[in-house]
Design a protein that fits this description.
Arylsulfatase, C-terminal domain; 3 domains; alpha+beta; Jelly Rolls; six-stranded mixed β-sheet; 11 helices; ten-stranded mixed β-sheet; Alkaline Phosphatase, subunit A; globular
Length: 618
């Protein structure tokens, strides 16, 4: 098995050969390592582009990119964001990586996974990550722990979510720059592209190949964008105007970034990829390219997304469409191969190189490959839950619905009864797939305490395991868990959806024995207010949604606090009226724990500490 060419500068071309379960994949690699730029938008679907048939949306720059690039028209991801990012970064099935949800501690990429950033860094690249990571906010899951030299990101899965800087909205926010919070001016998408361009300029001037991973939180809700983009859609609803406006802003940034690469003189040997992370969240109200389903769905509308690849030096600069079935797990083996990269001997990918799909001069053979995507979004995976088994011709949905996808792209006619052998064949494939992955589901991702790389750890309720945690700052402000209400979600009678207390906890791993200090907080450190205080509403921003900070912060009448470990209360403390936090100490041995700090209120209720800062060991 080849480890790649050891001296890329001595030969014009090298050949990399990998074997995946008996399938050999060969790719031709240019001797000069290409720069690599991957732009991935959040919640933008296949139909949310002009060149895919949407007559309303304005995406001239991405449309122009597609007109001189290879487009994969049967490319699939997971139906939601963190799982797609896990597959895209590792070449592994999402369920193998521990990432099958966006919250609940199930959005952290297992520490044993090797990311695309690490693989390219190990092969001579400078690596940068900009925008949305959503694969863990604590050590060892942060992008700076996973092979990225330069990191400029928001927290959690979006601006204003619980792990993000407090009161962040989409304008003039503060972000984590290599672990330090820094303020920024402008709309978030513009900021992330601006930082990425600065990184690319520095590397280009140094003559070093670079990998820039630009991952926008837009057009994920809440729906905000600069007013000039809202004004571009006067005939649409406020929601569509904001959603499409966010996409047009991304489009402008794509165009400006491509022009910037030209000005740097590196565009010719830059592999530029544009894609998205799941089906549309909102645009289906206007156009969905004839597909059934949207974000979160097991039908194609939930996970078939655009993928455009442009690389002039390799001849990928003419319009070319490939309708071969492929998946986000194919990106890592493809990109690493194109970069002439080496991979660890022990590393086995679930994906394969699709270089022949992307090259207009190649004619890939049609195979009988099968792929799986699912939308678990629960604490632990359940077999056949919102699952699609896919082949070039067929889609088996939830184990009992069969669609001949080329004849029926809208998945209208279930033909399972007419093709029982095909159903059984695809079920057998899935059974084998599931049986291989199921033993890994018990490998809970744990946040490290006491690691020398992170002696101070801020835990947020976004990563509580159990129930529906307060995953955005609106929920924290609304005292979700105390009032037992989830703002923004309604039951059938139109009332706020009630959430039951479920004994939520953080899964942590103590790395060194000693005394640890736990600082329990109702409000984050940016808020200098007592535990029991309320907060005023924050400022609004342009768009169709309220900013999370516009929700007033509700007071919780805290009188005492406790620290529960593996279900047992290990420490308690009273809380003074003007206390901004309460501290407790525990002596811990190395090992795994379920950590659940909590507050007691004057009306006899218990609510988890939304934030907990852990330092130690002493």
């Amino acid at each position: 098995m080849s480890e790649g060419n050891g001296d890329l500068g001595m030969k014009l071309f090298s050949f990399c050969v990998w074997m995946f379960g008996g399938l050999f994949v060969v790719c031709c690699v240019n001797a000069e390592q290409p720069n690599i730029v991957i732009v991935i938008a959040d919640d933008q679907g296949y139909g949310d582009l002009g060149h895919t048939g949407n007559s309303i949306i304005q995406t001239p720059y991405i449309d122009a990119l597609a007109a001189e690039s290879t487009s994969l028209t049967d490319y699939h991801v997971a139906p939601t964001c963190s799982p797609t990012r896990a597959a895209l970064m590792t070449g592994h099935w999402t369920d193998r990586t521990g990432v099958w949800h966006t919250i609940n501690g199930r959005s952290m990429l297992r520490e044993n996974e090797v990311t695309l950033g690490q693989l390219l860094k190990d092969n001579g690249y400078s690596t940068g990550m900009f925008g949305k990571w959503h694969l863990g906010d604590n050590y060892p899951y942060r992008p700076e722990d996973r092979g990225f030299d330069e990191v400029y990101r928001h927290g959690g899965g979006g601006v204003g979510q619980t792990p993000d800087v407090w009161d962040n909205a989409y304008f003039d926010g503060s972000y984590f720059h290599n672990g330090t919070v820094v303020p920024a001016k402008g709309f978030c998408t513009d900021v992330f592209f601006r930082q990425a361009k600065s990184f690319m300029k520095e590397q280009a001037e140094a003559g070093k190949p670079f990998f820039a991973y630009i991952s926008t939180n837009a057009p994920h809700g809440p729906l905000h964008c600069p007013q000039k983009y809202l004004d571009m859609y006067p005939d649409q609803s406020a929601k569509i105007a904001a959603f499409f406006g966010m996409i047009t802003n991304i489009d402008d940034n794509v165009g400006a970034t491509r022009q910037f690469l030209e000005e740097l003189g590196v565009a010719d040997n830059t592999l530029f990829i544009f894609t998205t992370d799941n089906g549309t969240a909102t645009g289906n109200e206007v156009f969905n390219a004839g597909m059934r389903g949207k974000k979160g769905s097991e039908y194609d509308g939930g996970h078939r997304v655009p993928f455009i690849a442009h690389w002039p030096a390799a001849g990928w600069n003419t319009e070319h469409h490939c309708d071969m079935l492929c998946h986000a797990v194919d990106v890592v083996p493809t990109v690493v191969g194109l970069a002439g990269g080496k991979r660890p001997q022990s590393l086995r990918w679930d994906g394969v190189s699709i270089e022949t799909f992307l090259d207009p001069e190649k004619n890939p053979a049609v195979g009988d490959r099968m792929l799986v995507t699912d939308s678990q979004r629960i604490r632990d995976p359940i077999k056949w839950r919102k699952t699609a088994v896919m082949s070039q011709q067929w889609r088996l949905i939830n184990g009992n619905q069969l669609y001949e996808i080329k004849k029926d792209p809208g998945q209208v006619e279930d033909v399972a009864a007419a093709h029982p052998q095909q159903v059984e064949k695809m079920k057998a494939f899935y059974d084998s797939w599931w049986n291989e992955l199921e033993p890994t589901f018990l490998q809970t991702t744990e946040i490290y305490l006491g690691a020398s790389e992170a002696p101070r750890v801020t835990l947020t309720c976004h990563d509580w395991i159990g129930g529906t945690p307060p995953w955005n700052q609106q929920m924290v402000r609304a005292a979700m868990g105390y009032r037992k209400k989830n703002p923004g979600r309604k039951n059938r009678t139109g009332e706020d959806l009630v959430q039951a207390d479920t004994g939520s906890f953080w899964a942590v791993k103590v790395m060194a024995p000693g005394d640890y200090v736990f600082e329990l907080r109702r409000w984050p450190t940016e808020v200098s207010k007592p535990l029991a205080s309320s907060l005023p509403a924050g400022d609004a921003v342009p768009g169709a949604s309220k900013a999370f900070r516009e929700t007033p912060g509700e007071a919780i009448p805290v009188v005492s606090a406790g620290l529960r470990l593996n279900g047992d209360v290990k420490a308690t403390a009273s809380v003074a009226k003007d206390s901004q936090s309460v501290q407790m100490s525990l002596s811990l041995q190395t090992g795994s724990y379920e950590l659940a700090p909590f507050f007691q209120t004057e009306d006899g209720k218990e609510v988890g500490a939304y934030y907990c800062i852990v330092t130690g060991p002493k």
